[in-house]
């Protein structure tokens, strides 16, 4: 077997970020909470005395098996305060939605933010899409998209 399993966000406050993704982006609990520590975790992460808490959320549009969004917090974390669309590394999580404007309103109402403007694009093959970059409550970048 070879398949995508999950994406992970390390949160400053896992409980608050989990609630944001459930409220604003229709992710749902599937009973996969975690409270993990031990030698194997220290060895795998390279973090001494690692302790992780959080949850796997089912992504909208999928059943309760996979893929999931894993939101964890460590007892001890390295924090930075800047996320940029053009930063090297994983840049954003994309959600295809029925109504980009309405979903953006839900993101904003749940405490998230907006980057740039909502745009309508027409591709050379005639496909049309609506896009906006947003941010969750911890600044992680989200792309909301709708295709016509």
From TrEMBL:
GO MF annotation list:
dioxygenase activity
InterPro entries in the record, alphabetically? Glyas_Bleomycin-R_OHBP_Dase, Glyas_Fos-R_dOase_dom, VOC_core
The answer to keyword Metal-binding applying to this record is no
UniProt-recorded name of the protein = Catechol 2,3-dioxygenase
Which Gene3D superfamilies is this protein grouped with? Answer: 2,3-Dihydroxybiphenyl 1,2-Dioxygenase, domain 1
Judging by the UniProt lineage, the source's domain of life is: Bacteria
| Keywords associated with the record | Dioxygenase, Oxidoreductase
Domain VOC stretches: 3-147
Q: Name one Pfam family in it.
A: Glyoxalase
Q: Which organism is it from?
A: Acetanaerobacterium elongatum
For whether the record's keyword set contains DNA-binding, the answer is no
């Amino acid at each position: 077997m070879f398949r995508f399993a999950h994406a992970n966000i390390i949160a400053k406050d896992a409980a608050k970020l989990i609630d944001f993704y459930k409220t604003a982006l229709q992710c749902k609990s599937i009973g996969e909470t975690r409270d993990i520590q031990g030698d194997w975790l220290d060895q795998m992460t390279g973090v001494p005395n690692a302790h992780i808490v959080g949850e796997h959320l089912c992504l909208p549009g999928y059943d309760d098996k996979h893929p999931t969004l894993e939101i964890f917090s460590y007892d001890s974390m390295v924090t930075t305060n800047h996320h940029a669309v053009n930063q090297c590394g994983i840049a954003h999580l994309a959600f295809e939605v029925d109504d980009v404007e309405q979903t953006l309103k839900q993101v904003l109402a749940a405490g998230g933010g907006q980057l740039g403007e909502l745009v309508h694009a027409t591709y050379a093959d005639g496909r049309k899409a609506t896009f906006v970059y947003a941010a969750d409550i911890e600044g992680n970048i989200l792309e909301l998209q709708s295709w016509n």
